[in-house]
Amino acid sequence: MIFPYIEVHQRKSKMKLMFGLPLFYLLLRCANQALGVTIQSVPESNSDGVIQTELEKTVSLACQRDSSSEPQADGELVWLRNGALVSLKEGNKEGRSSVCVTPVLHADNGANFTCHLSKNATVTASIILNVAYPPQISGSEDVAVEEESDLLLQCDIEANPPVANTSWTLNGEELDLAAGGFTVTNDGFKIQLLASRVEKSLHEGTYACSAYSDKYGQHTKTFSVTLTEKTMKFPLIPIIAGLVVVFLTLLLAFASRWKKIAKCCKKISK
Questions:
Q1: Confidence at residue 216, expressed as pLDDT on a 0 to 100 scale
Q2: 3-class SS at 94?
């Protein structure tokens, strides 16, 4: 008759465990809420915790303890930027702590700001900056290239959001890649135009590199390419090396025959 007692006892233990676990998780959740921190920002972040901003703007961040949290119980507030500690002034660490990003730079794009309690790093909140900026394409550049040399033109098209499309023109008309033997490469950051063994009739003129952004419109940079006559290039280093060898050879020959020359000079003097 022991077995029924054991079975009843096991059932009671299971029931206690079933009711005890939800109670434990409920208490744990309440504890986390009591120790929580939140980040408020200007401009406001979206539902994914991302702040949309642009270059030269200002972003203000404020980390706030929940009102039910005891300021002294859990230590000061700590800020991290991409995992690195942010230096804060005294008085800007307890209860509420603020960080200002001004002006917003290219390097701030994708920056992750995290706030947590110094004594409990698991109590944390984070936001990410998404910095929009146009492609850095503008102005003009003069390029001189010798005939039968290589021509390389390059434009920086890095932008956020990325540019929708790019193009090259020559003297205002769409560039015929096949006719000029051109090669275009685009890695999303730079676009390059390359032509080998250039000819005056085919490759001289005004080139334009353009990138179109849905957010910022079209940006263009021009290149005024002039082809010069090919010059004869002397192999300067081999020539210098040859002269050095000749000089050393003559010097050694003179030194080896110095005694004979000296005797000859003595006989002549007598």
A1: 96
A2: coil
